[in-house]
């Protein structure tokens, strides 16, 4: 793809790169006004998009059905408006009602879902024997099971990690480190992919690499 | 007392490290390595599931990731959408991030068939944004029409034939959730465990801990830009994911060198003491 | 919510569905709360003429008001569309990516094999790095296999524990919240 000549695309691309360099000036040099400017610009744009999208969503999914005669929507609209008393100390107590409503619903849903998916299903998967077992499958099965049991013993059991508890909890700690090390490795992939995306953009706009 | 070389190496100014990383990431874009990307089991599983779908099936494309994660997940999103369109699967799109409109714009500009080949309302539909996190996902699993009264553009659901067919999770043949956080867990809890709907994740690399749900609750899991590169190879159309893997190669090598250097320095300085 | 999950009663299911719908609408209003708090802070800065800050605060509020008004009028208008596709996307991805630098210095400075646990963490992390980057296979064909094993089998036990324990914590916290013993969510002690 050739380097764009459309003023709108070009101005956007250059604005994007200049803002990127302004942000990275903080990291690659030191804190400065340019970085502070981009910080505040980001906050204002993300707040603006939140307001616009929220108003569109409320229009489509609350005010539209209300305008069609479904008066039950009055209740959540009023409760939602009551939320705006939260920042004001004298009337903050009013916001507890909509908050309690939302937290109650969320808690009920989370609890009912978590028990099966995160507890029962995980235990069942851990103790389910491999289907067409090769020696490596048996090794993996026992490794995962022992890792699960020992690391759970480290977290859950309140008895002091001495005596007969010393070895399983130590193994459990090692298994957790294995898992956290894996998480760290994946975090690096994530961060590097993000950074490489911006570096690619900078090179593209400066014309060092072809525009794709 | 003058510092040893190892002390100097381990105490180098962080800005030097930042510049080293910045330059190292730039090099592979200027001079690509072109290393092949092997396909892994979980990405293949997602591909096979999408490949098994057809024009009679409906897939849900849930955008639960923001614009900020584009470099990681955009290649995967575009590749999967291309595959869905190639298989002529019907697509319902909704999401939970306020900037998802921009994400969908990006996808449609890379997959123009959504606008040229697909008919809006019949072949695909965009329902818009929903707040509420797990509550929203759970509510949609039971009754989509009680939550969405109109699509993103204000068209009432009665006028959208595709969404008329989707009343609950049971009417969806595959959930593809583009995820940077907890929404995959919500879909597993309420759509898969609750209603039996197959769920697959297009996630950032940090979502790899979701592997505990594979294959019992998850069809498959695409991990970050690597998953995107693998999927591009599977659909036979290389893109941003493959290009970015070169930078990943160099950066990861740099990390390994840094960790090795730091540990050699640590051992050397510890021995001296 | 709990009753509806365990008992298939039509009326309860309908009520549950309505309550969930209401919670979604209330949550949508919550998006506006952040604006009030932000404005309170930045108006205070402008009033006080806080050194080195007040003009940024004024810019933040002014730009927000301008964009919001344009967006509420027409999201396809050129100023709004251009700002979000170029300014918001750039800043969003850049600010999120900045942590890439920090993780590099963290790996360089903090990842020392001081103990067995630290060594396991580093080895596991490095194997995953060599699995994720195709260069691992170029160095030695065994690295991707080992890395894949760590990802698919090795770490699963530990991760499963973290998942299980998180669920236990969620249930305990949920019961405490429903019994009124946890009041942090509305600012109580």
Number of helices of chain A: 6
Number of strands of chain A: 0
Mean pLDDT of chain A, to the nearest integer, reads: 90
- Indicate the multimeric state: heterotrimer
Order of helices and strands of chain C: HHHHHHHHHH
Helical amount of chain A: over 70%
Assess the beta-strand content of chain A as a share of residues: under 5%
Q: Biggest interface between protein chains, with counts per chain?
A: A-C, 115 and 104 residues
Mean pLDDT of chain C: 89
Look at the helices and sheets of chain A and give the structural class. Answer: mainly alpha
- Taken together, the total number of domains of chain C comes to 2
The main pleated sheet of chain C reads as:
none
What radius of gyration of chain C results from the CA coordinates?
25 Å
Q: For the terminal residues of chain A, how far apart are their CA atoms?
A: 5 Å
| Radius of gyration of chain A over all CA atoms, rounded | 27 Å
Uncertain stretches of chain C: none
Count of beta strands of chain C = 0
Indicate the percent of residues in helices of chain C: over 70%
How would you explain this protein's 3D organization?
- The complex is a heterotrimer of chains A (212), B (273) and C (189).
- Chain A has 212 residues and is mostly helical.
- Chain A has a domain at 131-212.
- Chain A has six helices and no strands.
- Chain A starts with 6 loop residues before the first helix and ends in a 7-residue tail after the last helix.
- With 273 residues, chain B is an alpha/beta fold.
- Chain B has a domain at 41-195 and 203-238: 3-Layer(aba) Sandwich (Rossmann fold), CATH 3.40.50.
- Chain B has twelve helices and six strands.
- In chain B, strands 3-2-1-4-5-6 form a six-stranded parallel β-sheet, sandwiched between helices.
- Chain B is elongated and about 75 Å long.
- The relative contact order of chain B is 0.18.
- Chain C has two domains: 2-74, no CATH class; 100-178, no CATH class.
- In chain C, helix 3 runs antiparallel to helix 4 and helix 7 packs across helix 9 (142-154).
- The longest helix of chain C is centred in the last third of the chain and has 23 residues, at 156-178.
- Chain C is extended, with a radius of gyration of 25 Å.
- Chain C starts with a helix and ends in an 11-residue tail after the last helix.
- Chains in contact: A-B, A-C, B-C.
- At the B-C interface, helix 2, helix 5, helix 7 and helix 12 of B face helix 2, helix 5, helix 6, helix 7 and helix 8 of C.
């Amino acid at each position: 793809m050739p380097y764009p000549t459309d003023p709108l695309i070009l101005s956007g691309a250059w604005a994007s790169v200049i803002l990127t360099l302004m942000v990275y000036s903080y990291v690659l040099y030191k804190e400065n006004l340019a970085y502070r400017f981009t910080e505040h610009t980001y906050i204002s744009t993300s707040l603006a998009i939140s307001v616009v999208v929220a108003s569109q969503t409320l229009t489509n999914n609350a005010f539209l059905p209300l305008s069609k005669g479904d008066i039950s929507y009055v209740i959540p609209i009023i409760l939602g408006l009551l939320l705006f008393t939260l920042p004001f100390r004298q009337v903050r107590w009013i916001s507890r009602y909509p908050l309690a409503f939302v937290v109650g619903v969320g808690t009920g849903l989370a609890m009912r879902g978590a028990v099966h998916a995160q507890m029962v299903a995980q235990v069942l998967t851990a103790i389910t024997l491999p289907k067409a077992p090769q020696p490596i499958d048996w090794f993996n099965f026992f490794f995962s099971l022992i890792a699960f049991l020992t690391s759970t013993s480290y977290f859950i059991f309140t008895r002091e990690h001495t005596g007969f508890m010393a070895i399983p909890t130590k193994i459990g700690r090692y298994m957790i480190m294995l898992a956290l090390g894996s998480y760290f490795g994946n975090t690096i992939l994530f961060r590097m992919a993000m950074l490489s995306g911006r570096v690619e953009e900078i090179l593209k706009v400066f014309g060092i690499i072809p525009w794709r | 007392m003058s510092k040893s070389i190892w002390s100097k190496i381990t105490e180098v100014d962080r800005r030097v490290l930042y510049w080293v990383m910045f330059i190292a990431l730039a090099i592979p874009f200027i001079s690509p390595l072109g290393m092949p990307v092997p396909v892994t089991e979980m990405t293949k599983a997602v591909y096979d599931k999408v490949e098994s779908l057809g024009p009679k099936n409906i897939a849900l494309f849930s955008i639960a990731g923001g614009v900020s994660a584009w470099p990681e997940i955009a290649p995967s999103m575009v590749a999967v959408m291309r595959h869905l369109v190639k298989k002529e699967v019907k697509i319902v799109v909704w999401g939970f991030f306020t900037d998802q409109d921009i994400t969908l714009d990006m996808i449609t500009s890379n997959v123009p068939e959504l606008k040229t080949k697909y008919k809006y309302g019949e072949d695909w539909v965009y329902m818009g944004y929903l707040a509420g996190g797990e509550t929203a996902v759970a509510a949609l699993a039971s009754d989509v029409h009680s939550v969405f009264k109109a699509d993103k553009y204000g068209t009432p659901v009665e006028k959208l034939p595709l969404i008329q067919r989707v009343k609950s999770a049971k009417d969806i043949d595959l959930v593809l959730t583009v995820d940077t956080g907890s929404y995959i867990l919500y879909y597993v809890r309420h759509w898969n465990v609750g209603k039996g709907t197959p769920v697959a994740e297009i996630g950032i690399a940090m979502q790899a801990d979701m592997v505990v749900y594979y294959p019992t609750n998850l069809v498959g899991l695409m991990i970050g830009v690597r998953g995107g590169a693998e999927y591009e190879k599977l659909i036979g159309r290389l893109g941003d994911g493959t290009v970015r893997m070169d930078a990943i190669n160099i950066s990861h090598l740099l990390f390994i060198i840094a960790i090795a250097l730091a540990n050699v320095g640590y051992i050397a300085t510890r021995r001296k003491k | 919510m709990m009753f509806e999950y365990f008992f298939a009663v039509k009326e309860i299911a309908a009520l549950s569905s309505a309550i969930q719908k209401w919670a979604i609408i209330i949550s949508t209003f919550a998006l506006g709360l952040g604006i009030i708090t932000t404005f309170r802070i930045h108006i205070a800065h402008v009033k006080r003429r806080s050194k080195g800050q007040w003009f940024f605060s004024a810019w933040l509020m002014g730009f927000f008001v301008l964009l919001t008004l344009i967006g509420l009028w027409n999201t396809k208008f050129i100023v709004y569309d251009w700002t979000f596709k170029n300014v918001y996307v750039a800043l969003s991805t850049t600010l999120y990516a900045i942590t890439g630098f920090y993780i590099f210095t963290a790996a360089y400075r903090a990842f020392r094999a001081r103990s067995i646990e630290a060594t396991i963490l580093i080895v596991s992390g490095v194997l995953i790095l060599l699995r994720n980057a195709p260069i691992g296979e170029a160095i030695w064909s065994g690295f991707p296999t080992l890395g894949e094993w760590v990802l698919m089998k090795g770490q699963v036990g530990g991760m499963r524990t973290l998942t299980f324990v998180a669920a236990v914590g969620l249930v305990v916290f949920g019961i405490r919240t429903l019994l009124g013993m946890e009041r942090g969510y509305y600012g109580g002690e």
